[in-house]
Amino acid sequence: MGEGTQLHSGTLNLTGALTLRAVAAAENSLVAEVNKLLDQALMAKSRYVQIADRAAQLYSPVVHATAALTLIGWLLVGADLHFAVITAVAVLIITCPCALGLAVPAVQVVVSGALFRSGVLLTAGDGVERIAACDTVVFDKTGTLTTPEARLVNRGALDDAMVALAGRLGQSSNHPLARALARDGAAGAPFDDVVEEPGRGVRAMVEGIEARLGSPDFCDAHDAVTDALRDEPDATPIVLRHGGRVAVLLLRQVLRADARDVVADLRRRGLAVMIVSGDREGPVRRAAEALGIADWHAGCKPGDKTAILARLAGEGRRTLMVGDGLNDAPALAAAHASISPITASHLAQNCADALALGDRLRPVAEAVALSRKALMIMRQNLWLSTLYNLIAVPIAVLGYVTPLIAAVAMSGSSVIVTLNAMRARSAGRGAHAKTAPVSAPVAVSARPQAAPVITPARAATSTEAAS
Q1: Minimal CA–CA distance to 103: which of 389, 390, 377, 447?
Q2: Predicted confidence (pLDDT) at residue 407 exceeds the cutoff of 50
Q3: Would you call 231 a catalytic residue per the annotation?
Q4: How much is the pTM?
């Protein structure tokens, strides 16, 4: 990043001074565009009315009308007022909407607990129904299929002492890549006399010899970097020079450890899987190839992502969007259902129907499996309550049921519906037990990044602006 680079509002400058010139009004900024797309998506998204609510709209007037007709009917055929009233009361009691009222909420309570134990936190009341209805899963790449932080990917080819030295030097910088080195390689306390050169790197005297960590220019190691990048062209190189010793450390984001297994699991359940990412074509293509995903789109802006979801909706497909960045928020809102990692931006979390806890992708597959199981049980409960009424109401109308028997029958129907709802809990344990074994992390490229700088005067985009 240098003179003339365009910065968006929300960009974070870690160190150094920048001279900026405003070229757009607030209403024309990237954040304003994201908010505009988000508003459009929320307005276009029809309100999902829960199954039990739709049934309850007709249930109450039908029940009262049936009781009233029962009273009038028995009076017309010559029954005394006491018998007619008792029979009408029995009809009211036996058709009490407890079973119907419990049909969906009981399952939602049970499945919410099962989902939480599987690493999914529901944030929308109708999230289960909408996730279960999805037939296509759309993944963002960076921070979703991959880990949010860069990882050291060539550690096996490096000397352990050089990696430890780089990690100790990296502790004295706030740059994200330096923090990644400190996390992956540090073996000791930071040095006391570290000097930071904005835009270049850090240096310190180690055992009487100057050690430098930073860009190829700062460490005078262009040839070594060229050789190291020959097999890893998309990695970000950080150079460590300690006297005459040189080490090129390659960092990039890696696929989440269980990404392959989760994608395979989703396919086994009949869902189509695709990637829609704002990253460059090369990194997205390599991630798609590693996961066996043929349908992928790279270089997508927020508007492009919502356009792709709109096209899929026009084809009759119901999409489950999984993303974490601020620019994923409109797509999360536009999708039929959506899930965000717990590390996602706040705006993305607010737009999602569920949050995936932890650092794995498995909760996405668990959410689909448990939601489908829960929706099946909800429908069973609705059929059970309907069948109960189809049998019990005519018997009560004919006068064969007393209010006491009606109360017992009504309570029994509620117990049956509740016990059936408890099956969602066992479904959660079963789904978790069938979790596929975790494979080793697969390296994919990080966001496009220029020559490495550990202590940038350059601006580094914030986590919430990550795509």
Answers
A1: 377
A2: yes
A3: no
A4: 0.69
